[in-house]
Amino acid sequence: MSYYRIAILASLLFLHGQYSIFASTTGLPFLKLGVGAHAQAMGSAYMAQSKDASATAWNPASIAELKSQDIYIYRTQHIENAAYNYLAYTHSLKNGKSGLGVSLGSYTKGTFEGRGENREKLNDFSAADRFAAMAYALRVSPKVSVGANIKGISSNIESHSALGFAVDFSGNYRWSDRTQVAVGFFNVGPSLNYSGSEVSLPSQFSIGLAHQAWGLVTLTADSRTELFTQKSQMSLGGELNMGSLASLRMGYLSSLAKSGRNSGETGSVIGNSGGFATGVGFSLMQSIKLNYAFVSIGELGGTHHIDLNWRFGK
Question: Which of 20, 39, 8, 62 is closest to 230 using CA atoms?
Answer without folding.
Answer: 20
